[in-house]
Amino acid sequence: MSTSIPKIVVLGAGYAGLTTAKRLTKQLTAEQAEIVLVNKHNYHYETTWLHEVAAGTINPNQARVMISDVVSPNRVRLVYDSVVKINKDEKRVVLENSEIEYDYLVVALGFESNDFGIKGMAEHAFAIEDIDSSRLISEHIEYQFAKYNNEENVSEESLNILVGGAGFTGIEFVGELAQKVPELCKKYDIDRSKVRIINVEAAPSILPMFDKELVDYAKKSLEDRGVELKIGAAISEATSEGFIVGDDKELIKAGTIVWTGGVKASSVLGESGFELVKGKVNVNSDLRPEGVEDMFVIGDCSWVWNKEADRPYPSTAQLAMQEADVVAANLKALITNQPVEEFVFSDKGTVASLGHSDGIGNVMSGYKLSGKSAAAMKKVVDNRSLFLLGGAKLVLKKGKFRPF
Amino acid sequence: MSTSIPKIVVLGAGYAGLTTAKRLTKQLTAEQAEIVLVNKHNYHYETTWLHEVAAGTINPNQARVMISDVVSPNRVRLVYDSVVKINKDEKRVVLENSEIEYDYLVVALGFESNDFGIKGMAEHAFAIEDIDSSRLISEHIEYQFAKYNNEENVSEESLNILVGGAGFTGIEFVGELAQKVPELCKKYDIDRSKVRIINVEAAPSILPMFDKELVDYAKKSLEDRGVELKIGAAISEATSEGFIVGDDKELIKAGTIVWTGGVKASSVLGESGFELVKGKVNVNSDLRPEGVEDMFVIGDCSWVWNKEADRPYPSTAQLAMQEADVVAANLKALITNQPVEEFVFSDKGTVASLGHSDGIGNVMSGYKLSGKSAAAMKKVVDNRSLFLLGGAKLVLKKGKFRPF
Q: Would the N or C end of chain B have less CB density within 10 A of its end CB?
């Protein structure tokens, strides 16, 4: 009997995968489908909080949640292992320590840093990719401060923090650094003027998803707190000393170098023979790749076309969680022989933090926020993703209730 | 008029120097003597707590006190500068940024790590010398943990912590590590079995100041918590990889190497032409070097002979603070033309911590303590040194009130 129950395998417990698994437990009974969730770690982490982990402004443990606290291991089989390859033809997933077959697959393996082939970037720059890589950055930064007063011939640039990319992650990260660096200076008896926080961006503006008024607000907020913004300056190479920047090939030196300039889908997709467009898989409006019946690709692994704007939706946690709702509904539809539905994105707005007490945002169709109210809204947004995953209990446990 | 007031210059604001300055303000009026206290930093730190800073089990700021909170800047002129040289003949002290003349000098410049010329030790091993060097160790250890899950070919030994010397500092340090390492393993998702804490000692026993019963207790306590004790094993060389140990020249590898095996007086003394015996200055029972009238050398800079035992008193905070009492009294005697008094050490006992909830100690003429009561007593001892320096206010501010 049990062999006739369809098996849904969800790869990845990020916003997209974990929400899918959670929604599936509501949509389908144990008699209707077996659900398997595969994830490298036994925890989910808040990707949108990693810039805070990387800056050291929150405890890494606040940014992660045990998966078994979100979905019941009685209903969802939890497999903690790394995905090596997806074998579409055999409907099988190869894991590091085992293999798993599926009837339906949800690929939600998230992103990897994309250095667009910039020379030396992979070797010399840190990336904000997961909990491990993010707290390595904050530990690396703190180690530079700890060394500073202990060494005879310490380079003056060792305290500098150089961040490539002025998108969401890069700007939110330097916003946190503007808050963290004075704390580190105080802790390690170092003059604030010894530390440069430098953001380098090839594009003509920071935060391209916001309009000029909000961008100007953000720039002023960051520059007033000592962040140097080098806009319209391409990085031609990363070295052990820093970035080589701009037409005049200036070497900007720093003891900590971080690249936030781009993401691409998990390398498992390319290695499994998926066709990639700008690093991700194009999916139809039902969130399946063209011509594929039994597989959904969501979150940072895929591009979903925004027909109105004639470009893909930007990858966000909000998008991933809304996709998960539709995937769960569509899996139910497939299993119960109903028609699948189309994904339509409902934009709840976008808020970027600039440290813990400042920010900018667009919310409620065009209403703009900046300053403390945006910072407050950012915490509401962060808590909302917790609420969507784990209800009020999880918000109380991991939510952000800092005074502002 | 003011030129006729004798000028007392105290070098160093450790236990010895800061207590001397504090006592002088009680013993002598502003009309009787000018008091100058010279120290590198604007803070005093609890040297006996540095093993906790180095292990990362206390906040470095708990282990330091602003000097101006202990002695009034209205009564004591505070000079924050490094001592370069003492010119005895000209009664002058050369500082990095100025010079200062004295009528009476108290040399309390503390200790430096003494590697007894072991090859490579100065280059490759950390030392627990001051706040800066101690928190560098805890940051270095944490950085090894942060890197572990992020690197492809990370060496298995990178998490190991290798400590040379099983005296007070070395053993108290590994005791703290036995407590800290499981916390770090939990934080960084690393199996405890991946981390070795290894203490290497050339002498036939750890903690030579305690008797066999207490030493056996300490060894069992540490070994039960996973500390490896390699006793009777001399270190012939320190390399970037670890220590070369014992007759068979075994290389023990570790990502963190700390040397706690010996101390000597501040190098300023040797560079100023003081005669050194085993790294320190011998002083008479009035705490002045033989034949010197205007200078006292105390704390970790000097040896005071214990006539009963026919060997010098071991250097401890307790000894330093008792010396300071006598120096202050003798300075008053010199200024008021009274005879100086002899220093007699009154042993209040010795307590060593083995982490925050275990320890061993001798207190009240031969009464032995071990376990939680020794750990509790250790906190009493730590708080007592705060009390002697800054009264109840300082105990409340910086005291140790951990539950145990």
A: N
**Half-sphere exposure at residue A369, Cβ-oriented, CA atoms within 13 angstroms:** 23
pLDDT digits (tens, 9 = 90+) for A317-341: 999 999 999 999 999 999 999 999 9
What SS3 class is residue A113? strand
Distance CA B42, CA B44 (A): 7
Q: Hey, is A13 helix, strand or coil?
A: coil
Three-state DSSP class for residue B276:
coil
| Three-state secondary-structure class, residue B315 | coil
CB distance A41–B140 less than 8 Å?
Answer: no
**How many whole angstroms separate alpha carbon A368 and alpha carbon A361?**
6
Please tell me the distance in Å from A19's CA to the nearest CA on chain B. Answer: 24
Architecture of domain A2-113+263-353+384-398: 3-Layer(bba) Sandwich (3.50)
Mean pLDDT in residue range B37-61 = 94
Helices (H), B315-371: 317-335
- How many angstroms separate the CA atoms of A107 and A294, rounded? 11
What is the set of active-site residues of A?
A: 172
Measure CA of the first residue to CA of the last residue in chain A; give whole Å.
Answer: 57
pLDDT band at A397 (very low <50, low <70, confident <90, very high): confident
Q: 281-310 in B: which are within 8 Å (CB) of A?
A: none
Listing from the earlier edge strand, what are the strands of the sheet with A302-306?
A: A281-283, A302-306, A311-312
Q: Which residue of A has its CA nearest to B54?
A: A146
Would you say the CATH fold of A121-259 matches that of A2-113+263-353+384-398?
yes
The region, left, alpha or beta by phi > 0 then psi within -120 to 50, assigned to residue B110 is left
Could you state, in order of their start, the residue ranges of all structural domains in chain B? Answer: 2-40+81-113+263-339, 115-261+349-404
Neighbour-count burial for B133-163, b at 16+ CB within 10 Å, e otherwise: bbbbbbbbbbbbbbbbbbeeeeeebbbbbbb
Task: Tell me the pLDDT tens digit for each residue of B255-277.
Answer: 999 999 999 999 999 999 999 99
B133 touching A, CB under 8 A? Answer: yes
In CATH, the architecture of B115-261+349-404 is 3-Layer(bba) Sandwich (3.50)
Q: Which CATH number fits domain B2-40+81-113+263-339: 3.50.50.100, 3.40.50.740, 3.20.130.10, 3.30.1360.70?
A: 3.50.50.100
Predicted confidence (pLDDT) at residue B242 exceeds the cutoff of 70 = yes
Question: Candidates 3.40.50.970, 2.160.10.10, 3.30.420.10, 3.50.50.60; correct CATH number of A121-259?
Answer: 3.50.50.60
Which SS3 state, helix, strand or coil, does residue B78 take?
strand
Interchain contact, B143 vs A139, CB within 8 Å: yes
Cβ separation B146–A140 shorter than 8 A: yes
Q: Which range has the worst mean pLDDT, A159-163, A293-297, B5-9, B67-71?
A: B67-71
How large is the ipTM? 0.72
Contacts of B80 by beta carbon, 8 Å cutoff, 6+ apart:
B38, B39, B40, B41, B42
